[in-house]
Amino acid sequence: MTLESYLTVPALAATVAAVLAGNIIWTIISNVLASPIPSSVPGPFLARLTSKWILFVDMSGYRARTVDALHKKYGPVVRLAPNELSFSCREAVQPIYGTGSTCIKGPIYDYFGKRGLFQMKDAGEHRERHRRMAHIFSAGSLQQMEPLVQSVIDRTVGAIENKAGQVCDALHFCRMMALDVAGEVLMGKSFGAFDGQENAPVYVKHLDNAYPVWFIQGIAPLVYHTLNMLPIPALQEFMTSGDYVYKYGNDAFEEFLRLNGRTSNRRTLLTKLIAGNPETGAEPLPDADISTEVSNLTFAAVDTTGNTGAYALYRLACHPDWQEKLQTEIRTSRARETNFAYRMLQTLPVLNGVLMETLRLHPAQPSGPLRETTDHSTNIAGLNLPAKTLVSMQAYTTQRDPAYFPNPDKFDPGRWIKADGTINPGTPELQDMMLVWGKGPRTCSGQYMATMELKILLARLMDRFGVALHGEKTHLEMEMTDHFVLIPKGHCCSLVFTTLGS
Ligand code: HEM
């Protein structure tokens, strides 16, 4: 027989299938044999064989809930992949996230757009970037931004007022608030988020699309490059969403420089970023880095803050008793007298309790944050792990641990109020388990800014309106899913606001 007679289509197909099957079997065997994680660590069977299954869980939007169920079944340490573990015990917080930890941010951070403070892995490089940016996020700096924040919240309250008595999407309004605050303080101009009634600015479409595109780029580069080559205009627009976001940030930055120069008196975080920190002598970042940072910060600010605001309103609608307590607290405090000054609102225990409970039950980053070990032997909660092991703890689970939060699924702002009626910050042990803002050197830089926005928003809305669910539909919409950040499943939060008498 000639060689050609063997080259039939079935023979070639069988050969390709055999090579693929061999490849898969070899990958599985090497995953099992070469796994750096002791075989005694429990977890689902598939997690021993391949990292693909947790990738599918990620894509489904149910990572936080799946990993939580695994901890309930297997205990405080669970294998998620041949080289990935999730921890839920307090002893793991410090070695994974704390000061002095040798773990670095995991590979997923390489997917997130352009490298800045958020994405940097190298501790020295991150320290240096932090040194040159930290001053913009100080309490003092943010206090100067308060008039801008209040003016955006004026617009938010006005937009909700227009919809009083009707069903409206509170998620939309909260996201638009977070977007416009970010625009005002980080880019020096409003996004005009409330100009188009319920139409979000075009920027939001690109912001929403950028993450899925980066995700595809990270997990399936071949698919990404193939999609990039297809000459379909709508697809091309989708694939270049991230470019749009960075171009918008850069254009806004250049416009700001043109209009205000480098030393203006405008009270924005951008002004402070451009000026550097005269108090410590920290010199400003190069323009290209400022441009990247303002886009990254806007990205970090919008969904986190917006979704948290919507979940707080949803919880208040579910719990009319706490809504009433909050209204009473606001109306009997000096809130109106001080025009809802943040300094005043900071002292209100029910307001604080409502926000803390929302952040506890609905953390904006419910799963992860993922870290990678760098030492050849990193001890985490008694386990010695080699370099390049992926490790994480998820706020969704630690913040529902009944040992620290009795009756954990109950929305109970009273946990954060002492018997004498003052704010209860919780014990240090309990605070360790609150991972909502991250921990250690990579803690959220925008914590103060987000807290200020959310407290002013909630106080001003609850002073003016009662809020109610739109029946079962709202519960279905607000089911929690997560694609790195928390996203309500229905992408909507149907609520009815009713104007209260003065
Ligand atoms: C409710 C609102 C927010 C929540 C719950 C939240 C949560 C988080 C979490 C959990 C991390 C840690 C991620 C990690 O360790 O990998 C983080 C990091 C970060 N967040 Fe936020 N965030 C919020 C709002 C904001 C806002 C408004 C900004 C900026 C204006 C911001 C800027 C950042 C930055 C820059 C980092 C990276 C810090 C670093 O690595 O040094 N966040 N955030």
Brief summary of the model shown:
The chain has helices spanning 9-34, 45-49, 52-60, 63-74, 93-97, 123-133, 139-144, 146-162, 170-187, 202-219, 221-229, 233-239, 241-260, 269-275, 287-318, 320-332, 342-345, 349-361, 395-398, 428-433, 447-464, 472-477; strands at 77-81, 84-87, 104-105, 167-169, 371-372, 378-380, 383-385, 390-393, 465-469, 480-483, 485-488, 494-499. With 502 residues, it is of the alpha+beta class.
CATH superfamily: Cytochrome P450
Radius of gyration: 25 Å
Bound molecules: protoporphyrin IX containing FE
Q: Percent range for helical residues? A: 40-55%
CATH topology: Cytochrome p450
* First-residue to last-residue Cα separation: 97 Å
Family: Belongs to the cytochrome P450 family.
GO molecular function: heme binding; iron ion binding; monooxygenase activity; oxidoreductase activity, acting on paired donors, with incorporation or reduction of molecular oxygen
Keywords: Heme, Iron, Metal-binding
Protein name: Cytochrome P450
Walk me through this protein's architecture.
With 502 residues, the chain is α+β, with helices and mostly antiparallel strands. The chain has one domain: Orthogonal Bundle (Cytochrome p450), CATH 1.10.630. The chain has 22 helices and twelve strands. It has helices at 9-34, 45-49, 52-60, 63-74, 93-97, 123-133, 139-144, 146-162, 170-187, 202-219, 221-229, 233-239, 241-260, 269-275, 287-318, 320-332, 342-345, 349-361, 395-398, 428-433, 447-464, 472-477; strands at residues 77-81, 84-87, 104-105, 167-169, 371-372, 378-380, 383-385, 390-393, 465-469, 480-483, 485-488, 494-499. The strands form four sheets. A five-stranded mixed sheet has the order 1-2-8-5-3. Strand 6 and strand 7 form a beta hairpin. Helix 10 (202-219) packs across helix 13, helix 13 packs across helix 15 and helix 15 (287-318) runs parallel beside helix 21. The longest helix is centred in the middle third of the chain and has 32 residues, at 287-318. The protein starts with 8 loop residues before the first helix and ends with a strand. The model has no long low-confidence stretch (mean pLDDT 93). Protoporphyrin IX containing FE binds at residues 105, 117-118, 130, 297, 300-301, 304-305, 308, 364-365, 369, 436-438, 442, 444-446, 449-450.
